[in-house]
Amino acid sequence: MARKKNKGGDEGGGSASWMVTFSDLSTLLLTFFVLLLSMSSLNEKAIRSTFQNFDKTSGILFFKQYQKIRQNPDIVIQDIIKSLKSVYIADVRKLDEVSKTPWKKDFKLIVSSGNALLVKKRWNPGDFSFIFGDQLLFESGSATLKPQAYAILEKFARFLNEASYKAYVDGHTDDVPVKSAAFASNDELALARAHAVLEYLVTEGKVPPEKVALGGYGDTQPLASNDTPEGRRLNRRVEIIFEKIK
C-alpha cells in the first residue's frame, strides 16, 4: 500500500522560506529606523559652527534664517548692511539728519553723507532695493568699478543665487552734462555703470543672466532737486531693485 504523502511537510518547508524573507525585511526596517534616530540626534552646535564659518567668508545667510529668507527680505537687508559696513567704513546716520526732502519717507536708512547708501522698501510686498551713491562704486565720470565695490556686489550675487529673487540694475545721474570723453551724454554714463554692475554679478558672481536686467535713465528720475550739491549727489546713483519671483 502506497504511503500517504505528508502535505504538512511541504507546507512547513514553504513557511521556513517565507520567514527568511520576513527576517531580511525586518533587518532592513530596523536599520532604517536606527539611521533616522542617529540623524535626528546630530549635534546642532557643530552644524551651527559650520554655517557660521561659512558666513564669515562670503555668505549672507545665517543658520536660523536660511529657511525664512524668501518670506522675510528684511533679514537680507539687515545682513547685507552689516556686511557693507565691514567693507565700507562710514558713519551711520538717520535719513532725517541728512535731508528733509519729501521723498525721505520712502527710505529706511542712509549710510554716510559722502557716499549715500540708501535702503528703500518697494511698493510690492517682498520687494526692496539698495541705492548706492556713485562715489561708492565709481570714480567721477567713470564706469569702471572701484575695487571696494567687489566685496559689496559679492553679497548681492550670493543672495541672487540662493533666493527666489531677480534684480534690475538701474543707473542714474544728475543733470550736469558729463565731463568725460568716453561718454557723450548722461544717459550713456548711467547705462554703462549699470552694465558694469550687472556684468560683475553675472561674470564673477555667477548669477544666471535670466535673473538680472539693466536700465539707464540719465537724469530723468531724480531723487532730489538738482539745484543743490547734496541733491545732485543723491541723484548720481546705481539702484539694484530686488523683485520676488512669483
From TrEMBL:
Segments traversing the membrane: 16-38
Name this protein carries in UniProt: OmpA-like domain-containing protein
Pfam families in the cross-refs: MotB_plug (PF13677), OmpA (PF00691)
Domain OmpA-like: 126-246
Keyword hit for Membrane: yes
CDD domains membership: OmpA_C-like
Gene3D superfamilies documented for this protein: OmpA-like domain
